[in-house]
Amino acid sequence: MSEALLFEGKDWSFETLQRIHDAVAVVAKEELGLDTFQNQIEVITAEQMLDAYSSTGMPLLYRHWSFGKRFAQYEGVYRAGLQGLAYEIVINSNPCISYVMEENSATMQALVIAHAAFGHNHFFKNNYQFRQWTDPSGILDYLAYAKKFIAACEERYGEMEVERLLDSAHALAAQGVDRYPRKRPMSLAEEERRDRDRREERERLYDDLWRTVPRKGESPKKAVDHQRALLRLPQENILYFLEKTAPKLHGWQREVLRIVRLIAQYFYPQQQTKVMNEGCATYCHYRIMSRLHEKGQISDGSFLEFLHSHSNAIRQPTAHDPSYGGVNPYALGFDMMCDIARIAREPTEEDRQWFPEIAGREDEMAVLKEVWANYRDDSFIAQFLSPDLIRKWRLFHILDEEGAPKLKVERIHNERGYHDLRRNLAADYEVGRHTPDIQVTDVDLAGSRRLVLQHRVLAGKILDVVDAALVLRHLAALWGYEVLLEEVDATTNEVLKAHMASPEQ
Amino acid sequence: MRIVDRRLNPGGKSFSNRQRFLRRVRDTVERAVREASRERAIEDLENAHEITVPADGAREPVFRHTPGERRDFILPGNRHYVEGDLIDRPTGEGGGGGTEPGRGGGQEDAFRFILTRAEFLSIFLDDLELPDFAKRGLVDAQKLGSRRAGYSVTGTPANLSLGRTMQMSLARRIAMGRPRQAAVDRLEEEFAGATEGDSLELLDEKLRAARARRMRIPFLDPVDLRYRHFERFPKPVAQAVMFCLMDVSGSMTEHMKDLAKRFFMLLHVFLTRRYERVEIVFIRHTDEAQEVDEETFFRSTETGGTIVSSALAEMDRIITDRFDPANWNIYGAQASDGDNMMSDNSRTRELLQDKILPLCQYFAYLEVANANEGGNLSYIGGSSLWNAYAPLAASERNFQMRRVSRREHIYPVFRELFQRREGARPEGAT
Question: Is A189 helix (H, G, I), strand (E, B) or coil?
Answer without folding.
Answer: helix
